[in-house]
UniProtKB/TrEMBL annotation:
It comes from Nematostella vectensis. This is Endonuclease/exonuclease/phosphatase domain-containing protein. InterPro entries: Endo/exonu/phosph_ase_sf, Endo/exonuclease/phosphatase. Coiled coil: none annotated. GO terms for molecular function: catalytic activity.
């Protein structure tokens, strides 16, 4: 099974399990021949079958591609390789292509969607009120110097794995772990905001 076949299978599973929920699909598709303004493949283009296959998948799952600027520049070329698809394009706004940390530019966008951060089961989490922030910051500063030395020589995935592993390791070193109880409220709506909200409501 090639990567586009696997993508189609994955999207089918998402649609089957998520029902009418919207899809946002991103990644480096490495198909420079597609003209995303017209959604066509020029005659004689390289990898024409793969390009048409991706266009067919996007059409079948009602996905619109939203990046229309080059995301990788070569000595004599500029190609749109890093793509953002959405089944509901108005969920995303302020889509920009900005300088990246590899040979590709970065694509950033604002997702205009409310996210419920509640959880329904007990889980472990760090107690940031009882940790040693100063020592944590010192260790992070030392790590940052090491991390940036060869950052551009590693892949995005390798950089992310190193960053994630180090953050978790330092958090375990400097912060105690506690059991977080189930909740469905928004994490940002803390005690001070609840008091202010009740005060405002009482004045109405």
């Amino acid at each position: 099974m090639d990567s586009l076949d696997a993508l189609e299978v994955s999207l089918s599973k998402v649609v089957q399990s998520a029902g009418n929920r919207h899809i946002i699909l991103t990644g480096d598709f490495n198909l420079p021949s597609i003209d995303w303004v017209t959604s066509n493949v020029p005659y004689g283009a390289k990898d024409v079958n793969l390009c048409k296959r991706l266009l067919d998948i996007a059409h079948d799952f009602h996905l619109e591609q939203l990046v229309h600027e080059p995301t990788r520049y070569g000595p004599t070329s500029a190609n749109t390789l890093d793509l953002v698809f959405s089944s509901k394009p108005d969920l995303l706004s302020d889509i920009q292509v900005i300088p990246g940390v590899s040979d590709h530019e970065q694509v950033v966008a604002r997702i205009d969607r409310f996210v419920d951060h509640g959880f329904s089961q007990e889980r472990e989490g760090f107690d940031f009120n009882k940790g040693n922030l100063q020592d944590f910051c010192q260790d992070m500063k030392a790590f940052a110097a090491f991390f940036m030395q060869n950052c551009s020589q590693r892949s995005v995935h390798e950089n992310w794995q190193i960053f994630k592993t180090t953050i978790l390791s330092l958090a375990n070193k400097h912060y105690p772990v506690k059991i977080l109880k189930p909740q469905r409220k928004n994490q940002w709506f803390d005690r001070s905001l609840r008091r202010a909200f009740r005060k405002k409501t009482s004045l109405i």
